[in-house]
C-alpha cells in the first residue's frame, strides 16, 4: 500500500542505515534499565539467553516482514501461516518420531509456496498486498479449521519439539543454550548479509521508488516476490520453533502479523518501503518482547497492557517520523 | 490514478452490482433446489440488518480509503460507542438524544486523533490507527467485564427492530448516510479535494488543496460513521457491548467491503455506491451460506478467494484502461 | 525545530490518551483492576453472592434422574408443565449456535449431532446456524430461523444480555425455546439447561490448589480473557476461596488462550519470585503449556488445575502431577435435544435444568484419560454410548 508515504525520494540509494537505528537502541536501553532496576537477575546470562531464545520466533518473523515492508508491501498472512503450519505438522507427524524430518521439509516448502503465491498475486495480478495477504489470511485460517474439523488433531513428536524447547545443557559460562538461539544466530547473519547484498539494495530501491527502479532495469516483480518468499520461509521457521516451544494450538500464530509489523516499524523501517534496516527490525522485535516482559515484571494489569503497548508504539513512531521529516 | 481529478467517484460500481445480482440469482436457485427460500421475509430482514451494521462502517471507511489513508480502529470505536450510548441512556427515553450526541462526539474525537496523528505527526495510518485501537482496547478491557448500560427503549423499538415491509429502518439509515457520503464526494469541494489528495497528494497540494484538513475531516467522518454503527448496534443489542466491534471483525470486513466495491486501497479511485454493493454482496453470501448450512470455515475460505479475485479483476481493468 | 516538533508529538499523544479515556458520565466501576502482585484485586462486578451460595450448595446435592446418565439428571429440579407444546412427530428442530470457534464447542456440537442421530426416528430435520461468535449475526439468525417453521428452537447465546431481546421475540412466536450454556435475562424460554456453573468450577479448583500447597504460598492465577461472564464467575469464586485461605496471589494474568504467551508469563513469574507454589486456571486450554513451563525451567510442578481436555489428563497421568480437573461438561449439548423432544411430547421438564458438574480427581483419572482420543477432546462428553463413537470425535 502506497499510503501518504509518497514524498519525493532520492534517485540514488540513500545511506539509510546511519541514524535510523538510534531511536530503537535508545528505547531498548531504557527498557533494559527499567528491567534491571526491578529485576536485576534478568540481566544474568542464563536468563537473558532464555529470554532471547523464547523471543526467536517473533524476531524471525520481523526479519521476514522487513524484506516485504522495505520493498513497499505488507504481509498480513504470517500469523495464520504459523498457525496453519503448526496444526498441519501435528496432524501429519501424529506423534510418530520418524516423520519429523519429512514434515519439517514439507513445512519449509509450504512456507515458500505461500510466499510465492502472495508475491505473484501481488506483483503479477496487481492486487495490493494488504488485500492479497488479508485474503490469504482468511483462506489459511478457514482451510486449516476445515481440514481439522475445528480442533487440532494428532500431536508433535518430541523430536520435532526439541528445536523450540530443548537446549545444550551446561555450556561453560552461559548455562543453557537453546537450539533456537543457533537458528536465531544463523538467520540473523543471513538476513543481514542478504540485506547488504545487491538483492537487498535492489529491494530498498524498489520500495523507495518502483518506477525509477523499473526504468533502471530492475525486475520489480521478481524482487518483491522473493521478498514474500523470504517472509513465508521465516514464518515456516518460526512455526517450527513456536510449535516446539508451546505445542499445538489454534492460537499459535494469532496476532503475530501485527506484532511483526509493529516490531519492524519500531525498528525504524518505513511502512511504504524504501527506508530501514533488517537489524533494526529484529531489534524492534526484541524491544517489543522486552516491553511485554517489563510489564509482567512491573505487574501491570493484564487488561491495561494493550494501552501501554499502543502508547509506546505511537510515541516511538511519532518521534522517529518527526525526526526524519525535520532532517 | 493521475486522472482522479477529472474522474468522478462513480467508475467502478457496476462490476460489484453485476456480481451481486449473479450471486443472489445463483444463491436463490441453489437454495431453492435445497428446498429453502432465500428471499422469504425473515431472511431478507436478517440480510438487510447485517448489511446495515457493516454498511455504516464501510461507508465511513470508503472516505478515508479514497483519501489514501485507512482506519483500523473502527472496531474499537464501535464498541466504545455502544457503551457510551447505552450507559448515557440508562434505559431512559429522555436521555436518548444526549446518549446519541455523546456517542457521536466521542467517536468524532477519536477520528480527530486519528486524523491528526496521520497528517500532523505523520505516522503511517496503519500504525496510527492500530495504535489508537490498542489504546481503546486497553480502556475497554480494563473497564468492562461484559455488556453494560441499557439502550433507550424508544431507540430499540425504532432503529433496532422497526421495519417497513421487509426493509428495516436501519437499512434506510444506511441508505441515507451513503447518499450523504455520495453527495459529499461527487458534488462538494471537500469530495473533489479528497479524491485529489488520495490520487496524488503532491499534485493536490500544489493545486492549492489543504491536504491535512481534508484528510482529518475524512477521518472524523469515518469515526462518526463507526459511532453511528455503534449506536445502531446498541439499539439492536439493547445494551452496550465492549467486544461487539472486534467480534464482528468490523475493521477488516469494512475494508473488504470497500475494496470489493471497487475503491482502490491506494486512494483516489472509488465511491460509496460500490461499497454498498460490496456490503450487500458480503451479507448476501452470508445469507446464502446460512440457508445451505455451509460450514463457517468454508465460507471464510470462499471470502478470501472472492476478495482477492475481485481486486485482481479491478486491477486488470485499470491496467487495460491505462494502456492506450 | 526538532524539539518543538517532538513536543508537538508528545502533546498530541497526551491529547490522544485524553480522548481515549473519555469516560461517559455513568462509567461503571472498573472491576478486577487491582494491581496484580498485591493480591486478588477487586471483586468482579459479575459476582452475585446469592448465585454463588446456590452453586456451592449444588456441588453437594444428589441429582435426580437415571444413574450413569448425568446428561439426563437434574439437581434440585422444579418441573414445569409443557402440555401446550405437545405435537405429533417427526419434528423439525432448529439450533442457533453462538459459534464453533473453540475445541469445547466443537466437541459439544459433535455430541449434539450424535444425539440427533440417535433420535433420528423422531427428528425429521435438524437445522443449525452458526453465528460465528457475533451477537449481531446471532440476533439476525434467530429472526431468520423463526421463518423456517421450526417445531422447537434451541439457542446457545453468544452473550447473555445482548441476546435477550431476540430470545424474547422468539418466545412470542409460541414455539418452545430451550436455552443452554450461557443464559438469557428472561424466563420466557421453557427451560434453561446448564451445569452448576462457573462459581462451582472456580471454587473447586481454588480449594484444591490452596489446600495442597504450603500455607501462605504464592499462587499464580492464569485467565483467558477479561469480560467473559462464564470465566468471570470462575475467577470471582476462586478469589473468595483464596482470600479465605489466606494464600498470596502474586499475579492474575491473561493468556488469550495462547500457549506460547502462557509459557512466557510463567517463566517471568518464576524469574521474579523464584518459585511459584500453586497455579490456578480459569480454563484448561493452556494448562499443558503452564505445566511445561515448570518442567522446562527444571522446577517441580506445583498443585495445578486444568480441565477435562485429554492433553492435560495424559500429562497429569504420565508426570504424576498434583492436579485436579473441574469440568464444564460437554455432555450438556445432549440435554437440549432430549429436552426439546420431551417438551414436544408434552412431558414435564425441569426448569431450570441444572446438570451435575463432575470433577476429575486422582481417584477417577484413569477412567477419563483415554490415550486413543485426540489431545483437545473433552473427556466429560458423555458420548461413549452415542452412534459413531469414537471416530466422530477423532
From TrEMBL, chain A:
Q: Is the keyword rRNA-binding assigned to this protein?
A: no
User: Which controlled-vocabulary keywords does the entry list?
Assistant: Cell inner membrane, Cell membrane, Membrane, Transmembrane, Transmembrane helix, Transport
Signal peptide residue numbers: none
Topology of this chain in the membrane: Multi-pass membrane protein
Give the GO molecular function terms: transmembrane transporter activity
Transmembrane segment boundaries: 21-39, 51-69, 76-93, 99-120, 127-147, 177-194, 226-246, 252-271, 278-298
Pfam families recorded for this chain? Answer: BPD_transp_2
Q: Which GO terms describe its cellular component?
A: plasma membrane
List locations, semicolon-separated: Cell membrane
Q: What is the recorded name of this protein?
A: Autoinducer 2 import system permease protein LsrD
Taxonomic lineage from the root: Bacteria, Bacillati, Actinomycetota, Actinomycetes, Micromonosporales
TrEMBL record, chain B:
Recorded GO cellular component terms are: plasma membrane
- Main localisation, per the record? membrane
Query: What keywords appear on the UniProt entry?
Result: Cell membrane, Membrane, Transmembrane, Transmembrane helix
The keyword Membrane appears for this protein: yes
CDD domains noted in UniProt: TM_PBP1_transp_AraH_like (cd06579)
Annotated localization: Cell membrane
Q: How does it sit in the bilayer?
A: Multi-pass membrane protein
The organism's superkingdom is given as Bacteria
- Signal peptide, first to last residue: none
- What are the transmembrane regions? 48-66, 73-90, 96-116, 123-140, 167-185, 214-235, 255-285, 297-315
Q: GO MF annotations for this entry? A: transmembrane transporter activity
Protein name according to UniProt: ABC transporter permease
Amino acid at each position: 500500500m502506497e499510503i501518504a508515504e509518497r514524498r519525493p525520494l532520492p534517485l540514488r540509494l540513500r545511506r539509510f542505515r546511519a541514524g535510523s537505528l538510534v531511536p530503537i537502541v535508545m528505547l531498548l536501553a531504557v527498557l533494559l534499565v527499567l528491567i534491571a532496576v526491578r529485576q536485576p537477575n534478568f540481566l544474568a546470562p542464563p536468563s537473558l539467553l532464555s529470554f532471547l531464545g523464547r523471543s526467536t520466533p517473533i524476531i524471525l518473523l520481523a526479519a521476514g516482514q522487513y524484506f516485504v515492508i522495505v520493498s513497499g508491501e505488507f504481509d498480513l498472512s504470517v500469523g495464520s501461516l504459523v498457525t496453519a503450519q503448526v496444526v498441519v505438522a501435528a496432524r501429519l507427524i501424529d506423534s510418530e518420531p520418524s516423520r519429523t524430518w519429512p514434515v519439517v521439509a514439507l513445512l519449509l516448502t509450504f512456507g515458500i509456496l505461500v510466499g510465492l503465491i502472495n508475491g505473484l498475486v501481488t506483483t503479477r495480478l496487481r492486487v495490493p498486498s494488504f488485500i492479497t495477504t488479508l485474503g490469504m489470511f482468511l483462506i489459511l485460517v478457514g482451510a486449516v479449521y476445515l481440514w481439522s474439523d475445528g480442533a487440532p488433531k494428532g500431536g508433535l513428536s518430541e523430536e520435532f519439539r526439541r528445536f523450540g524447547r530443548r537446549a545444550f545443557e551446561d555450556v561453560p559460562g552461559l548455562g543453557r543454550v537453546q537450539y533456537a538461539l543457533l537458528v536465531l544466530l544463523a538467520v540473523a547473519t543471513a538476513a543481514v548479509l542478504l540485506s547488504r547484498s545487491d538483492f537487498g539494495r535492489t529491494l530498498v530501491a524498489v520500495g523507495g521508488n518502483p518506477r525509477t527502479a523499473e526504468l533502471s532495469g530492475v525486475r520489480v516483480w521478481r524482487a518483491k516476490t522473493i521478498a514474500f518468499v523470504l517472509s513465508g520461509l521465516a514464518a515456516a521457521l518460526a512455526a517450527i520453533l513456536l510449535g516446539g516451544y508451546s505445542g499445538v494450538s489454534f492460537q499459535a500464530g494469532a496476532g503475530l502479523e501485527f506484532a511483526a509489523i509493529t516490531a519492524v516499524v519500531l525498528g525504524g523501517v518505513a511502512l511504504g518501503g524504501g527506508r530501514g534496516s533488517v537489524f533494526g527490525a529484529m531489534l524492534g522485535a526484541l524491544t517489543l518482547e522486552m516491553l511485554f516482559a517489563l510489564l509482567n515484571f512491573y505487574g501491570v494489569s493484564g487488561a491495561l497492557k494493550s494501552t501501554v503497548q499502543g502508547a509506546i508504539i505511537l510515541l516511538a513512531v511519532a518521534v522517529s517520523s518527526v525526526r526524519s521529516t525535520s532532517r | 490514478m493521475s486522472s482522479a481529478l477529472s474522474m468522478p467517484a462513480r467508475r467502478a460500481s457496476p462490476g460489484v452490482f453485476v456480481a451481486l445480482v449473479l450471486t443472489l440469482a445463483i444463491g436463490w436457485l441453489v437454495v431453492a433446489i435445497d428446498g429453502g427460500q432465500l428471499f422469504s421475509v425473515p431472511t431478507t430482514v436478517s440480510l438487510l440488518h447485517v448489511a446495515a451494521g457493516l454498511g455504516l462502517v464501510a461507508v465511513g471507511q470508503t472516505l478515508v480509503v479514497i483519501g489514501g489513508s485507512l482506519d483500523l480502529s473502527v472496531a474499537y470505536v464501535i464498541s466504545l460507542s455502544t457503551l457510551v450510548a447505552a450507559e448515557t441512556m440508562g434505559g431512559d427515553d429522555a436521555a436518548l438524544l444526549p446518549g446519541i450526541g455523546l456517542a457521536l462526539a466521542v467517536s468524532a474525537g477519536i477520528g480527530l486523533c486519528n486524523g491528526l496523528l496521520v497528517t500532523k505527526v505523520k505516522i503511517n495510518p496503519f500504525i496510527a490507527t492500530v495504535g489508537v485501537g490498542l489504546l481503546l482496547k486497553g480502556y475497554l478491557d480494563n473497564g468492562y467485564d461484559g455488556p453494560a448500560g441499557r439502550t433507550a427503549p424508544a431507540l430499540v423499538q425504532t432503529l433496532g427492530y422497526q421495519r417497513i415491509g421487509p426493509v428495516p429502518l436501519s437499512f434506510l439509515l444506511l441508505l441515507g448516510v451513503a447518499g450523504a457520503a455520495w453527495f459529499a464526494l461527487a458534488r462538494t469541494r471537500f469530495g473533489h479535494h479528497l479524491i485529489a489528495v488520495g490520487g496524488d497528494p503532491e499534485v493536490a497540494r500544489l493545486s492549492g488543496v489543504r491536504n491535512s484538513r481534508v484528510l482529518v475531516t475524512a477521518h472524523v467522518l469515518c469515526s462518526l460513521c463507526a459511532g453511528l454503527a455503534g449506536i445502531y448496534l446498541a439499539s439492536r443489542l439493547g445494551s452496550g457491548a465492549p467486544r461487539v466491534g472486534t467480534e464482528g471483525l468490523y475493521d477488516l470486513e469494512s475494508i473488504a467491503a470497500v475494496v470489493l466495491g471497487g475503491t482502490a486501497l491506494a486512494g483516489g479511485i472509488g465511491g460509496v455506491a460500490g461499497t454498498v454493493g460490496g456490503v450487500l454482496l458480503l451479507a448476501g453470501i452470508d445469507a446464502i451460506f446460512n440457508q445451505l448450512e455451509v460450514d463457517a470455515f468454508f465460507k471464510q475460505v470462499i471470502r478470501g478467494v472472492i476478495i482477492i479475485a475481485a481486486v485482481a479483476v479491478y486491477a486488470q481493468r485499470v491496467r487495460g484502461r491505462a494502456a492506450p | 525545530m526538532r524539539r518543538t516538533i517532538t513536543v508537538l508529538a508528545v502533546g498530541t499523544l497526551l491529547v490522544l490518551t485524553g480522548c481515549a479515556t473519555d469516560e461517559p458520565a455513568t462509567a461503571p466501576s472498573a472491576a478486577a483492576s487491582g494491581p496484580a502482585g498485591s493480591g486478588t484485586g477487586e471483586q468482579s462486578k459479575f459476582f452475585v453472592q446469592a448465585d454463588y451460595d446456590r452453586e456451592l450448595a449444588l456441588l453437594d446435592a444428589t441429582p435426580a434422574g437415571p444413574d450413569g446418565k448425568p446428561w439426563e439428571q437434574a439437581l434440585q429440579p422444579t418441573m414445569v408443565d409443557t402440555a401446550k407444546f405437545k405435537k405429533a412427530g417427526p419434528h423439525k428442530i432448529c439450533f442457533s449456535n453462538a459459534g464453533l470457534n473453540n475445541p469445547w464447542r466443537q466437541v459439544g456440537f459433535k455430541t449434539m449431532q450424535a444425539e440427533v442421530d440417535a433420535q433420528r426416528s423422531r427428528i425429521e430435520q435438524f437445522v443449525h446456524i452458526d453465528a460465528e461468535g457475533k451477537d449481531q449475526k446471532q440476533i439476525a439468525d434467530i429472526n431468520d430461523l423463526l421463518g423456517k417453521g421450526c417445531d422447537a428452537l434451541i439457542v446457545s447465546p453468544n452473550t447473555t444480555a445482548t441476546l435477550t431481546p431476540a430470545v424474547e421475540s422468539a418466545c412470542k412466536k409460541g414455539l418452545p425455546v430451550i436455552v443452554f450454556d450461557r443464559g438469557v435475562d428472561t424466563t420466557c424460554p421453557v427451560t434453561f439447561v446448564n451445569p452448576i456453573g462457573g462459581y462451582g468450577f472456580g471454587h473447586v479448583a481454588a480449594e484444591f490448589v490452596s489446600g495442597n500447597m504450603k500455607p501462605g504460598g504464592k499462587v499464580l492465577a492464569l485467565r483467558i480473557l477479561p469480560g467473559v461472564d462464564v470465566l468471570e464467575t470462575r475467577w470471582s469464586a476462586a478469589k473468595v476461596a483464596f482470600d479465605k485461605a489466606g494464600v498470596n496471589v502474586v499475579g492474575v494474568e491473561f493468556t488469550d488462550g495462547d500457549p506460547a504467551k502462557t509459557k512466557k508469563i510463567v517463566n517471568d513469574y518464576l524469574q521474579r519470585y523464584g518459585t511459584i507454589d500453586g497455579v490456578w486456571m480459569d480454563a484448561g486450554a493452556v494448562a499443558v503449556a503452564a505445566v511445561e513451563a515448570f518442567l522446562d525451567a527444571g522446577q517441580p510442578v506445583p498443585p495445578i488445575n486444568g480441565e477435562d481436555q485429554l492433553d492435560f489428563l495424559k500429562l497429569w497421568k504420565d508426570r504424576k502431577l498434583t492436579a485436579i480437573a473441574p469440568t464444564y461438561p460437554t455432555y450438556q449439548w445432549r440435554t437440549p435435544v432430549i429436552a426439546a423432544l420431551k417438551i414436544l411430547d408434552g412431558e414435564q421438564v425441569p426448569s431450570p435444568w441444572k446438570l451435575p458438574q463432575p470433577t476429575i480427581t486422582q481417584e477417577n483419572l484413569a477412567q477419563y484419560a483415554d490415550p486413543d482420543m485426540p489431545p483437545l477432546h473433552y473427556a466429560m462428553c458423555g458420548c461413549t454410548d452415542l452412534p459413531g463413537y469414537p471416530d466422530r470425535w477423532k
